[in-house]
Amino acid sequence: MPWFRRSKQNIAPDTQKRELPDGLWEKCPSCGEIIHKKQLELNLWTCLKCDYHWRIGSKEYISFLLDKNSFKEMDKKMRSADPLEFKDTKKYTERIAEAIKKLDLYDAVRTGTGKIEGRDVALGCMDFEFIGGSMGSVVGEKLARLIDKAYKDKLPTIIISRSGGARMMEGAYSLMQLAKVSARLTKLAEAGIPYISILTDPTTGGTTASYAMLGDIHIAEPKALIGFAGPRVIKQTIGKDLPEGFQRSEFLLEKGFIDFISHRKDLRANLIRVLDLLA
């Protein structure tokens, strides 16, 4: 009977791409799981299915690591000059201005003091979104001032690294910051003040070659890329295939470069334990 037969004449194929509404959902880059942004935030920006760790900024780390409303920011509006008058496809000053407007940050690190479980700490946290988290003169100066504050007030110091390394637009001025921050950390070590380095994805270049690997304790997030030169550059240089998971947190833990790996949801609790141990 014809009314039981489905006509295909007026059924058009579904050729339109179905897109998720902006601002509501995120797709996990690792497993493809679709997660509501509010649920992702409650899970500290990690995948509920595969534990993939999204790259997040300093505001997010401060929100779940420090006691509520305890953070007091230092040197907030310090911004880079353009000593080399660098210009590639765009002036360096223009890139700085665009990043400030977009991120409400004046450079690639946020520094200040706060409390963890009532204990005073000095905290520096890098923001990869600001020109790749690159380390220029402002990043170096803000970290140096943070460490000076920690030295003066005897505060345990925590630096969370996420960086592509030195900022090429500042040339030697950028490279000078590696030595400056490392020298300040020596003062902390001589005074017996703990320094905890947290390495996240990615921590590379001059950042790894200086303060990121000078901690009393090194903690890494799972599967974070940590190294000086990247795997692709190394492979091209030596002409050999690299071991599986090369330069990832788990590989570095196996080789003794870091002390332990912490899931982001356990990071605050692990910091409390480490601070208790070092105190």
TrEMBL record:
Function: Component of the acetyl coenzyme A carboxylase (ACC) complex. Biotin carboxylase (BC) catalyzes the carboxylation of biotin on its carrier protein (BCCP) and then the CO(2) group is transferred by the transcarboxylase to acetyl-CoA to form malonyl-CoA.
GO biological process: fatty acid biosynthetic process; malonyl-CoA biosynthetic process
Oligomeric and partner information: Acetyl-CoA carboxylase is a heterohexamer composed of biotin carboxyl carrier protein (AccB), biotin carboxylase (AccC) and two subunits each of ACCase subunit alpha (AccA) and ACCase subunit beta (AccD).
Protein name (Swiss-Prot/TrEMBL): Acetyl-coenzyme A carboxylase carboxyl transferase subunit beta
HAMAP family in the cross-refs: AcetylCoA_CT_beta (MF_01395)
Required co-factors: Zn(2+)
Group of enzyme by EC: transferase
Alphabetically ordered keywords of this record: ATP-binding, Cytoplasm, Fatty acid biosynthesis, Fatty acid metabolism, Lipid biosynthesis, Lipid metabolism, Metal-binding, Nucleotide-binding, Transferase, Zinc, Zinc-finger
GO CC field: acetyl-CoA carboxylase complex
Species per Swiss-Prot/TrEMBL record: Ignavibacterium album (strain DSM 19864 / JCM 16511 / NBRC 101810 / Mat9-16)
UniProt: Zn(2+) binding residues: 28, 31, 47, 50
Catalytic activity: N(6)-carboxybiotinyl-L-lysyl-[protein] + acetyl-CoA = N(6)-biotinyl-L-lysyl-[protein] + malonyl-CoA
PANTHER family in UniProt: ACETYL-COENZYME A CARBOXYLASE CARBOXYL TRANSFERASE SUBUNIT BETA, CHLOROPLASTIC (PTHR42995)
Subcellular localization, as worded in the UniProt entry: Cytoplasm
UniProt GO MF annotations: acetyl-CoA carboxylase activity; ATP binding; carboxyl- or carbamoyltransferase activity; zinc ion binding
